[in-house]
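Hi team,

Filling in the usual template for the complex we talked about on Friday. All components are listed, including any nucleic acid strands or ligand strings, so the model treats them as one assembly.

SUBMITTER: L.P.
PURPOSE: interface mapping
COMPONENTS: two
RESIDUES: 235
SEQUENCES:
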Amino acid sequence: EAQVTQNPRYLITVTGKKLTVTCSQNMNHEYMSWYRQDPGLGLRQIYYSMNVEVTDKGDVPEGYKVSRKEKRNFPLILESPSPNQTSLYFCASSSASPGAEKLFFGSGTQLSVL
Amino acid sequence: AQTVTQSQPEMSVQEAETVTLSCTYDTSESDYYLFWYKQPPSRQMILVIRQEAYKQQNATENRFSVNFQKAAKSFSLKISDSQLGDAAMYFCAYRSAFSSLYGGSQGNLIFGKGTKLSVKP
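RESULT (copied from the run log):
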């Protein structure tokens, strides 16, 4: 089954404790992206990747890191989480080919930073 | 940079009635895709409908249809015969048709802030 798998679904942590949210897709997609969703602000892009070893900042990259060492994986790293990073996070992927425009989303990760 | 604007934070419709959600966007590109995504309380992101900018004909998917006005940069979603299961957040989104390989804007999906739709029985 074609899918984007995010883990964990829920995470509660404390300020300053490094954490990683994993994202993996099984569709051989070139494009992967991270979004955060906050009430009244919609989905804002954090980082995206057009292919292995190619990443770029989205609209709200501060406080986050990503890596794309393998095509299937695109982890989101919070080196020193702060309460303003409490949010719902989504990973998404798609083919980078023109015309293959549908984005596949993970199930989301609800993060609370105390 | 492209932007997507949804001017209605919340909307309400009576069951079986019709409702229209508004979306406008700003871009200098000539070819792109537009989407409506639905997010029910389960948080899952569900693709409702999509429109290719080069197509003049409005897309339809069962009870869902769009009014695409390219010159006005408007992309509204019409839900006919509303059902209780239609209650959700709806997001309008834009994506360039060209990836960076073709000089486009990376193929990023840009979202609006969403419209919360309530359906009254």
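MY TAKE: Chain B is about 0% helix and 50% strand. Chain B touches chain A at residues 6, 9, 33, 43-45, 47, 50, 91, 95, 97-102, 106-114 (CB under 8 Å).

Thanks, L.
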